Amino acid sequence: MGSELWHLQSPFIKRRLHSAATDTAKTCGALYLVLIAANLFNFFLALSDLPFSLTSLFSDILTSPLTVILLMSAIYLVLGTLMDSLAMLLLTVPLFVPIADAAGINLVWFGIYVVMVVEMGLITPPVGMNLFVLKTTNSDIPMVALWKGVMPFVVADVIRIGLIIAFPALVMWLPEAAR
User: Fold this and answer.
1) What is the pLDDT, as a whole number, of residue 164?
2) How many CB atoms lie within 10 A of CB 90?
3) What predicted TM-score, i.e. pTM, was given to this entire model?
4) Do both 120 and 62 map to the same domain?
5) Both 14 and 57 in a single domain?
6) How far apart are the C-alpha atoms of 48 and 41, rounded to whole Å?
7) Is there a single domain that holds both residue 135 and residue 56?
8) What is the pLDDT of residue 157?
9) Residues of the chain with pLDDT under 70
């Protein structure tokens, strides 16, 4: 036991432990700032009735759930280039759920769809956020090579999302079986 304690007292271990604790505190602080900002945003959304105003504004396109889904897909793909998934979900779901509900979209299906589209937006070239994370960890790989390497995954995501839009039962069979 004495020798284990000696290793923790070494300057190298102390520096590494301090660095890890500092990085953890910074990451947690950033996540809490996003959560606090999203809660404030949601509070002001509730005060302003913006989700309901958007629902009435988009009442013309609400007649076709497919149009609503395609429009939301485009929005999530663009947002995927600008923000991370947690921020995207916290900022858009309070706006999109009333619209999806008014369009007659099953909200369980919608939740699964949103997670899939958000994750696809994060890898979509040219500026998907996760591509920059890959570039940071692998600085010797050119960005064009990352774009080419991620394209099979983007195509697979597009096919998967197309399948769940065309056949919602693929997503809903498990929740319905659990009832």
Assistant:
1) 93
2) 17
3) 0.70
4) yes
5) no
6) 10
7) yes
8) 92
9) 1-9, 51, 55, 58-61
